[in-house]
Amino acid sequence: MAVRVPDENDMVPAIMRQGTTVKEFEPEFFIITMSHGQPAEHTDYRILKIYDFPATNRGTPATKQEYKGYLNKYKGE
Length: 77
Prior knowledge:
This protein has 77 residues and is mostly loops. Helix content is 13%, strand content 8%.
């Protein structure tokens, strides 16, 4: 990635790496960690409530029956 060259009267923040300003940098610069607090009254707290959707990009593709089974399992949700 590269820093956009600012036009006249345009403000672009400086990208700093190891104490110096850089014009090019890795996209990983924007990866952040996100943490969350866990309330004391909810011991079963999870971010993802349903996480067993059939994966299409891992190994063999999911079949139509797997998708139908998933939808039937969570029909009332």
